[in-house]
Amino acid sequence: MRKRKILLVNPWIEDFAAYDFWLKPLGLLYVGSFLKKLGIEVDLIDLMNRYDPLLQSEVTVPRDKFYGTGKFPHTVIPKPKILSFMPRRYKRYGMPEELFRKILREHRGEVGSAFVTSTLTYWYPGYFDTIRVIKEELDVPVFFGGFFVRNQPRIALNSGAYIFTKTDLRFLPRFLNDVLDWNIPETNIDWFTELSPAYELYQRIGYVVLLTTIGCPYRCTYCIAHRNWEKMKFKSPEKVIEEIETFSQMHGVKDIVFFDDAILISKERHFKPILRLILEKGLNKRLRFHLPNGIHARLLDDETAHLLYEANFKTIKLGYETSGKLQITTGGKVRDEDLVRASEILHKAGFTHNEVSAYIMINLPGQSPEDVTNAIDVCASVDIDFSVNEFTPIVGTDIWLDLVNSGRLTGLEDPLLLNNTVLPYWWNNMTYEQIHEVKEYAKNKKQELGWK
């Protein structure tokens, strides 16, 4: 029987660009808490933690930009052959390989297996390289889970790891028992509502990312969130506050980030009580809070906005996506009038464009450059900032299915080709030049307004 200790690993990102916008492997940290609850010892190597003291002792880590975010250290590596046509350098972001190997060697004989997580599908070369290095340094089984594995299990098998495709961690004991010949008892623990992410596994971090809900009731055609979970789950406000207090004190951080897909759903019994507890406990006086994942503008009301302002929220991202007819055909989550109304509510509460911005997508199927520039103009007219983000067709979404059924995609594309940076170079939608022109329009618009 193998030693009952598992090494958790957050893998490298390999891409043309990557930035630490509050990236933390929450799923992996919940796996850590779940395993500890079952009596299994765990350790963590986060290759993407810019605050890792060992990393900072070995390489120069770029300074923070704002609120704990910043650039990753990186190494230029050869491009995958399928991306040889791309006129950009390909990079591995995160901890240098030799430092990773050194740390792994220190774990020899100490761990019985390793568990690697995953997120974006087109980052899989980084996941595979991470698994390869683990296998070369440690003679232990490697497990592989996360979104990429669930979304692309056939490709994930090529990693040589044992793949775990479930979102419900209650399936994990049987999975580990079958591979490792352990006898972990099955459990009915609700990993999300009862447990907290295992931030105690870190020596040092620059911010804390939390989830207060999982799931989303909306059915946006470009999004996979509603298919990731069978139903929405809500963590109790008291549990959320406990996590904020515990982890902010544990690591001495000032920035707390909520990464929920739909935090304003059932806000009267969920998010508003959380905001009131933040104020009651005075957490707003020592912490800054952030909502970077695109809240639903239509669900915002005056009381929520005032609570957000009083609670010291410094980042509020609104999901806007586009102007024009696509607002309806992509799911009807938000219209121009919803964004205008939300901006008025937030401004009345005291916010400015320094805290509030909207996500605008570009290169959606059927979208014109004018749809995007019009969306930029709407944001500018109501004094909220904006970011233009390139569309990626996620396998399994309604948009992806429509593209396959209409013949615009085969359904068999390598995920590397669906990278939003790569897509304009081969896909017959908006060209790279059109996208660049729109981004220049956005940049000039901000300069006209005197924004940074």
From TrEMBL:
One protein family per Pfam: Radical_SAM
GO cellular component, one term: cytosol
InterPro entries: BchE-like, Elp3/MiaA/NifB-like_rSAM, rSAM, rSAM_horseshoe, rSAM_sf
Cross-referenced SUPFAM superfamilies: Radical SAM enzymes
A GO MF term: iron-sulfur cluster binding
Key words of the record: Iron, Iron-sulfur, Metal-binding, S-adenosyl-L-methionine
Cofactor: [4Fe-4S] cluster
Cross-referenced SMART domains: Elp3
Radical SAM core domain span: 200-423
Name of the molecule in the record: Radical SAM superfamily enzyme YgiQ, UPF0313 family
Organism encoding this protein: Fervidobacterium gondwanense DSM 13020
